[in-house]
Specification:
The chain is mainly β. Helices cover about 10% and strands about 35% of the residues. It is built from five helices and 32 strands. The protein has a six-stranded mixed β-sheet, with no helix packed on it. The longest helix has 14 residues. It is globular, with a radius of gyration of 23 Å. The termini are far apart.
């Protein structure tokens, strides 16, 4: 049947309107040394444009973002745009040796990509070693011009970036840990927008404050930029209404505590409905690994009501560090906002079924040396008993695009090579299972394939929670639970109507999560634990998504200034 001719002018008008509502937003990042004073110490850190955190980038959905990065630091550098789909712009995703070679000191690179089909809070950070401890910032995506939030417009909004601080050079901390084979030193403090808060020494003037007007409602955009810790977050005497996670809208969920894993974002509405006064914002770790050392300090900020006369803030009661029931209640009660902006239903036809174990491992110390890890070996980590090793001669994406062999192997297993009682603590140091070989093993996917993954934690070395991040895609979280995943009984728990949508999932301690996504973006997409201590140990793999059948589903060539190895 012929299409009515009168629809053509309307379609052209709609297209012109859509194009006219999108802008090009341009920034320059100058990355270099910065001297700051925290916790009674002066430290030289790596920072962007002389600030910690770095600049907040604000765009609208549909805008094209162009960021010129000038590396004036002494370290190799890349920038990852955490949670951005990077549709047909995988050369700008940023993880070192996955999609690009690093920007060497004294060199530059321009990241350019369009924000498509996303609204809310994301963030950007360095993706080389531990540099993201101080090289990070918020990426705020507002609705396209003429579109509204799916909630009443707040009076004002504030980015809240939760960070982690060492009284040492973080690159040295990481390198010393890798050299010893043991755990790196834990952090000395947590921070809110770069400030530790007045519970720490010499920090009375280093406390972030938010000024509010009684009766008004505010949007807080919370980012967990900490390297190695999930965090409990509370505001004294105030409820919070969660309205989005990982830049995906949720059904409003009222809570007095937010739990947030490294890499995740949570948008909340805060109504200033208490009496005039000052109220502490507080965050401290959710530490799920029994017996493991962690930074047990608390960072604070202050909500100050306009007209308040009392200067002594009230303090919230934070959950116990190991309060898994509270963490699980928060994570499992979130649901998506069906038919909200950019909502997509769960794909029901599945092309690829994967069962992926994640956990710590060991690697031989080498020679006759004794390392600081368990059994005198060095710490490692793996997915399906493959401990990921990044290439150094060429990025995986370049090797994929140009057909270069010898950089990676497309043999990442769909299931662990050996089945065992995954979460039984008796296997903690089982020598027949705990050593994982090193490889650059990836999983190839057909364009538009629907992938379902069971993410199963293991009890190797320690039973703990692992935040798993997938670059380039959002995924539906169908279910999550504790113990070993049971395909017969646990599939009955799947939410196929309105599951939460994320890019980073905190797989429960000693438990599992089932996720599903559509591989509609050709390129190389890293899958890894977002605890920075685990990435260099090898808790990672990558999806290599093949090109589709049309030019609109084919990865274009790299930009001319792509860094060389």
């Amino acid at each position: 049947m012929a299409r009515p001719v009168f629809l053509l002018p309307f379609a052209l008008l709609l297209l012109a309107s859509t194009m006219a509502s999108a802008d090009v937003v341009e920034h320059s990042f100058h990355v270099q040394n910065l001297t700051v004073r925290r916790l009674c110490h002066e430290r030289v850190i790596t920072a962007v444009n002389g600030s910690l955190p770095g600049p907040t980038i604000r765009v609208r959905e549909g805008d094209t973002l162009v960021v010129h990065v000038f590396n004036k630091s002494p370290y190799n550098l890349t920038i990852h745009w955490h949670g951005v789909f990077q549709l047909l712009s995988g050369w700008s995703d940023g993880p070192e040796y996955a999609t690009q070679c690093p920007i060497r000191p004294g060199h530059s690179y321009t990241y350019k990509f369009t924000i498509t089909g996303q609204e809310g809070t994301l963030w950007w950070h360095a993706h080389v070693q531990w540099l993201r401890a101080t090289v990070h910032g918020a990426l705020i995506i507002r609705p396209r011009a003429g579109h509204k939030y799916p909630f009443p417009k707040p009076h004002k909004e504030f980015p809240i970036i939760l960070g982690e601080w060492w009284n040492a050079n973080v690159i040295d901390v990481e390198n010393e840990g890798l050299a010893s084979g043991g755990n790196p030193n834990i952090s000395d403090a947590f921070t809110i927008n770069g400030q530790p808060g007045d519970l720490y020494p010499c920090s009375q003037k280093h406390t972030h404050k938010i000024k509010v007007v009684q009766g008004k409602t505010y949007l807080l955009r919370i980012v967990n930029a900490a390297l190695n810790n999930q965090l409990f977050f509370k505001i004294a005497k105030h409820k919070m209404k969660v309205i989005a996670v990982d830049a995906s809208y949720t059904e409003p969920y009222v809570t007095d505590v937010v739990v947030i894993a490294p890499g995740q974002t949570t948008d909340i509405l805060l109504t200033a409905d208490q009496s005039l006064g000052s109220y502490y914002i507080a965050a401290h770790p959710y530490a799920s690994a029994a017996g493991a050392a962690f930074d047990n300090t608390t960072t604070t900020g202050i909500v100050v009501y306009d007209g308040a006369t009392s200067s002594t803030p009230e303090m919230p009661v934070l959950p116990a560090f190991n309060d898994t029931p509270t963490a699980h209640k928060f994570f499992s009660n979130l649901t998506a906002l069906p038919n909200g902006p950019h909502w997509t239903p769960v794909p029901l036809h599945i092309d690829e079924h994967m069962f992926v174990t994640s956990g710590l491992a060991l690697s031989p110390c080498g020679g006759n040396a004794t390392c600081s890890g368990p059994l005198g070996q060095q710490f490692s980590a793996s997915m399906n008993n493959a401990s990921f090793q990044f290439p150094t001669k060429l990025s995986i994406l370049q090797a994929f695009f140009y057909g270069v062999s010898g950089i990676y192997t497309a043999d990442f297993p769909d299931h662990p090579p050996v089945k065992f009682d995954y979460t039984n603590s008796n296997i903690s140091l089982d020598r027949s299972l705990i050593f994982a070989p090193k490889s650059t093993s990836v999983k190839k996917l057909k364009y538009n394939a629907t992938v379902e993954i069971v993410l199963q934690n293991t009890a190797f070395v320690a039973v703990e929670n692992h935040p798993i991040h997938i670059h380039g895609f959002n995924f539906h979280v169908l279910a999550q639970g504790f113990g070993n995943y049971n395909a017969t009984t646990d599939r009955k728990k799947f939410n196929l109507e309105n599951p939460q949508v994320r890019n980073t999932i905190g797989v429960p301690v000693g438990g599992w999560a089932v996720i599903r996504f559509q591989a509609n973006n050709p390129g190389v997409w890293l899958v890894h634990c977002h605890l920075d201590v685990h990435l260099p140990w090898g808790l990672a793999t990558a999806f290599v998504v093949e090109n589709g059948p049309t030019p609109e589903s084919t990865l274009p060539p790299p930009p001319a200034d792509l860094p060389v190895c």
